[in-house]
Amino acid sequence: MRILVTGGAGYIGSHTALELLAKQHDICILDNFRNSSPECLRRIEKLSGHHFSQITADVSDSEAMEGHLDAYRPDAVIHFAGLKAVGESAEKPVEYYDVNVSGTINLLRAMDRSGCRKIIFSSSATVYGRPEYLPFDENHPCAPENVYGRTKHMAEKIIQDWQGARSDSSAVLLRYFNPVGAHDSAEIGEDPTDTPNNLLPYVSQVAIGRRDRVSIFGADYETRDGTGMRDYIHVVDLARAHVAALELADRHQGTETINVGTGAGHTVREMIDAFSRASGRDIPYVVTDRRPGDIATSIADPSKAYKLMGWKAERTLDEMCTSTWAWQQRNPNGFRGPGHSNPTKNDVRQG
Ligand code: NAD
Ligand code: WQD
After folding, report:
1. Could you read off the pLDDT of 237-249 as tens digits, one per residue?
2. How many Å lie between the centroid of ligand 1 and the Cα of residue 35?
3. What Enzyme Commission number does this protein have (predicted)?
4. Which atom of ligand 2 is nearest to the CA of 176?
């Protein structure tokens, strides 16, 4: 298949690109490098041994999107491009709605023009909000508590309505839980440009000595050790869920919303301990106040993913930590190093 991967230079998109190339798909990565680096694309080419089309563009630019889809004519789109920081979304709501919601509308309009009828969308477990019951299944009511979550929920609804109006189309809305880990090669991984918002990248930077200690945001939750519990999923498992979703979209018309998680939870303390074992380093921490908006526990019921796509997570917590550590050690500054370049908007390179 010809697959347009928006946001394919980012953390989850880059791992998915490698899985798609391994399956001999023809891909085109479209990204504006707002939160990623062209160096990542060079590494994907090196690791996969494949060249692919690359477009530097902004999903907020409706006209450019139409031009790029007209030129590439994808059979399917995997839409990762978006802004994802919960805290920042409260400070810059309009920007978040513009990129995450208007960007999705621009993409759908461009898909219509070019005749593309299949979309896989990166949604988030954050759309559920506070649990009424656990684990979260896909029928759990959605009441997102932050701007970011609302943008994802709106984009889901827009895609669902787009699909409902086109009987020959399909949409798979993947709700990711907590992606962590890195590729086995240690050549690609999560590369936060600023202070990490998420737990594991922060822990990893403490282990390597870039930061002094981890703050545990609250130890008085109703969990087995009082700290927050989450469903962490290895990014390679998550990437493979996209390949499975593409196969589902290819054989099935309609919209499917699917959780992508393991079904198991780990607390903050357990994550720190696991990372300490994997890295062989002490990880100092301090318990602080709860982070506003956090919930005690978030765990997926992943059974629909297995039923519909034959997909389930395979990698262990230790593999999540050892791969993160290997990536961190080999790339202490992420993708930023000598030779890093900043491409101009709308550069196009056909592979
Ligand atoms: P990421 O920031 O690493 O990747 C997003 C990519 O989109 C980046 O390469 C960025 O440069 C690009 N991008 C941002 N704005 C753009 C724009 N206007 N035009 C074109 N490209 C743009 O994030 P990620 O962790 O890989 O997340 C990918 C998707 O999955 C996002 O939509 C995110 O909301 C969603 N998601 C992520 C998580 C998570 O914890 N990482 C959890 C649930 C859902
Ligand atoms: C995990 C646990 C924290 C950092 C977020 C987004 C969600 C999705 C994934 C995009 C919690 C605790 C964290 C730290 C800590 N992203 N923690 N100290 O909040 O479950 O989900 O990322 O879609 O939308 O909300 O992930 O990694 O921030 O936190 O104690 O320095 O670690 O309180 O219990 P979260 P997280």
Report:
1. 999 999 999 999 9
2. 8
3. 5.1.3.2
4. 23
